[in-house]
Amino acid sequence: MEQLTKRNTQASGKKKKKTLRPKRKHKQLYGTSKLEEDFASDFLDKLGVEYEYQYEAKDIGRFYDFKVKDGPIIEIQGSYWHGDARIYEEKDLNQIQRKNMRIDEYKQKWALMHGIPIYYIWEKDIRENPKMVMDELKRILYIEDKKKETATNKRKRHVNKIK
Asked: What's the Rg (C-alpha) of the chain?
């Protein structure tokens, strides 16, 4: 049996329909994890924090998990992938874990050079002690201080300063 080739189909007089692949949507440059999605919905969204997901540092070609508007960068560290010292001893880390630690160090230096505070939150803490994580986020983002200041200002007598 003869295989049909482009030449054979044209020679037989039949035009082969050209099928176009649908255009791909923009592929994410950096992978996301279920842990990051859970963190955003369980913590940042509940606190009403404005943030950018997958904040890009273009000059180094790296992405950060979250950049809070007018605030710090928050990195979510998976216990396995980033070699949580509470679980893994340094001598037992594999090549991927060591590489991720070097990248984290590089990203931390970039953030500090640009005057952006960076905070790391570990998977173990998110899963095992969410209240502590929530309290820490409130402290980092000054959420409790803002609430207290608003409540204090509401109790103060407002003086009309228009003359």
From this structure: 26
**Backbone dihedral region of 142: left (phi > 0), alpha (psi from -120 to 50 degrees) or beta?**
left
For residues 67-106, one letter each, b for 16 or more C-beta atoms within 10 angstroms of the residue's C-beta and e for the rest, the string is bbeebbbbbbbbbeebbbeeeeeeeebeeebeebbeebee
Closest CA to 79 of 148, 33, 42, 137: 33
pLDDT per residue, tens digit, the chain (163 aa), is 555 554 444 555 555 555 554 444 434 455 678 999 999 999 999 999 999 999 999 999 999 999 999 999 999 999 999 989 999 999 999 999 999 999 999 999 999 999 999 999 999 999 999 999 999 999 999 876 555 555 555 566 656 566 5
SS3 21: coil
Residue ranges of domains in the chain: 30-141
pTM for this one?
0.68
Confirm if 74 and 119 have CB atoms less than 8 A apart. yes
CATH superfamily of the 30-141 domain:
VSR Endonuclease (3.40.960.10)
Using the 8-state DSSP alphabet, how is residue 31 labeled?
A: -
